[in-house]
Amino acid sequence: MSPNNRTGLLRSELLTLFRRLRTLMMLAVLAGVPILLAWAVKAFSGPSGPQEGPPFLYQVTSNGLFVALTALVVTLPLFLPLAVGVVAGDSVAGEANQGTLRYLLVVPTGRTRLLAVKLASVVIFGACAAFTVALAGIAIGAVLFPLGQVTLLSGDTIGSGTAFVRALLVAGYVGVSLAGLGAVGVFASTLTDVPIAAMATTVTLAIASQIVDAIPQLHAVHPWLLSHYWLAFGDLLREPMYTADVTKGLWLQLGYLAVFGTLAWARFTTRDILS
Amino acid sequence: MTDAIVTRGLTKRFRGGQVAVADLDLDVPPGSVFGFLGPNGSGKTTTIRMMLGLAAPTAGQVQLLGESMPAGSAKALPRVGALIEGPACYPFLSGEANLVRLDMADRTADPKTRPARVDQALERVGLLAARRKRYKAYSLGMRQRLGLAAALLRPRDLLVLDEPTNGLDPQGTREIRALVRAVAGDGATVFLSSHLLAEVEQICTHAAVLSQGRLVANGTVDSLRAAAAGHLVVRTPDAGQAVTTLRRLGIAEVTSDGDRVVGLADSILPETACAALVADGVRVQALAVDRPSLEEAFVALTGEGFDVTE
After folding, report:
1. Is there a contact between B78 and A11 if contact means CB atoms under 8 Å apart?
2. Please, where are the H alpha helices in chain A?
3. On chain A, which terminus has fewer CB atoms closer than 10 Å, C or N?
4. What span, in angstroms and rounded, lies between the C-alpha atoms of A72 and B9?
């Protein structure tokens, strides 16, 4: 066994994923959000008041980096979960549906290994999606608005270099925040041979989580909801960083990964592949 | 050398109680070209899925190249090339990229020899010119060829081919036949499922016949053809005497119908029977031996007609 082929399956999985037009279109749409946002602010109006529009929007004109943050806030409820839901829901069911699953398994890939690679590629795609929004936002922000010192939520100011690192940190947190949803999607994907069913289930769960999170009477379950800590990334924009909720968010995503990863494994390693 | 495939008591019952494969005992000798025959829906593909570890048997065992399945998948499957229920590839990738995808997924495949092996596999199935074309633009025949190329990516000890000539034109069918012969000539075992008897009769050394999930015949192709017994048919005005003579010669199942006398032809040469008939004063108008084709043997074993049985 040659050691340089250990990662072959993951590399081939990512190559297959990122050569697919659908994947590239989804990333293009995500990149389009900050561009639309920045253009709208630049073309009409100038600054909005602090109470208008999504968080951070009023700061966009003073610093281009805020384009990225605003874009992350507006894509988190639907666009990002939709992109992750499509890729995760398609991961196993899509292969089963087009028949390639049986050929991958007789290569042989091993079911546990294939599932681990599917899960890893979904997590990597989630991070790519978050960074696409962030980097497109930073780029268009740098073109249309000044980049300079950034005034944080805590009132402190930091240099543009530090601010850039903070923005990447936020993108990384958002990326990890999508991992749990990815695991839910992969599990849904092992239950069916119809990819669209798994995708719809995943996206529905992401929306349902946000709805439940918005009902104060259900506060007892809030800390366990997939989406509960998604917007905690604002805490990374304080000086010093407030990490309590971010840490809880990371643990929660890890928990979802472990639970739904295990469920997917239990299902996938015992099922008959008849497609 | 161990048999390439051995199954013992292999049974698959689906949820809902339908029995797809029942108590199957198969021995596929190494180096054979083994035809796996049966009408549509007789359980061929389910059997293949169990052999390759894709579906779990309800009861019984499978040994693939000496490894117990599915536990021995990692050891046995790299030595097996398979085409299962038609080809399946990524429609948005080219034929070549599809083969690379599969080869990269194989931990035991050497990445250094990959380009050469991909080229060779494409060449063997005649797809070298269409290598950069997307799979979705391939015709059914080209897809079938690409599926075969995937099975031939590495030297294999066993090829499991489920209906390999489906969708191919007569020219393509001949090429596949030549390919199977060439692969078998290199010493590999070929397990070929089909419902096309001519195909099996032409290239297989052994065959098994499946009907409604049960094995109804199993052996070398010659023995199967012979087992479908020939009949000695005599036409004569002296039918009564002919029956007496043939029975005296030890021929079984002698019956007469008007001027036609029929018996099993296996125990005696036709010229010997003729001489004895003439010696007994039987006026022989015609004497012939009816040999059934493999097709008639097949129909006799599996039943006729298009009805899909439950």
Report:
1. no
2. 8-18, 21-43, 65-75, 79-98, 100-105, 111-144, 160-177, 179-190, 195-213, 244-268
3. N
4. 59
Average pLDDT, chain B: 86
* Beta strands at B158-162 and B80-83: parallel, antiparallel or unpaired: parallel
How far apart CA A252 and CA B94 sit, in angstroms, is: 41
Chain B residues lying within 8 Å of A106, measured CB to CB? 52-54, 77, 80, 82, 84
Q: How confident is the model at residue B308 (pLDDT cuts 50, 70, 90)?
A: very low
Q: Whose CA is closest to B105, among B50, B154, B178?
A: B154
Tokens of B41: 């829906």
Residues paired with B214 in a beta bridge = B211
Per-residue pLDDT tens over the stretch B237-255: 988 888 888 888 888 788 8
Rounded distance between C-alpha atoms, residue A202 and residue A208, angstroms: 10
Structure tokens at B110: 């050497």
Which of B100, B106, B108 to mutate to probe the A interface, most A CBs <10 Å?
A: B106
Q: Residue B6 pairs with which residues in a beta bridge? A: B27, B63
The residue of chain A nearest to residue B12, with distances taken between CA atoms, is A272
Q: What's the CA angle centered on B53, arms B62 and B210, to 5 degrees?
A: 55
- Between β-strands B158-162 and B5-13, what pairing exists: parallel, antiparallel or unpaired? unpaired
| Mean pLDDT, residues A156-164 | 83
Structure tokens that stand for B283 in this block: 């006026």
- What is the pTM for the complete model shown? 0.86
Tell me, what's the pLDDT at A209?
A: 95
Length of chain A: 275
On the CB side of A61, how many CA atoms lie within 13 Å of its CA?
12
pLDDT of residue B55: 92
Report ipTM for this prediction: 0.86
Sheet-wide strand order for B189-194: B80-83, B158-162, B189-194, B33-37, B206-211, B214-220
Q: Do B110 and A2 touch (CB under 8 A)?
A: yes
Q: Please compute the mean of the pLDDT values over residues A148-170 and round it to a whole number.
A: 84
Q: Of B203 and A205, which is predicted with more confidence?
A: A205
Q: In B129-252, which residue ranges form alpha helices assigned H by DSSP?
A: 140-151, 170-185, 197-203, 221-227, 239-248
- Single out the residue of A61, A121, A58 nearest to residue A87, CA to CA: A121
Q: Torsion angle of alpha carbons A115, A120, A122, A124, nearest 10°?
A: -170
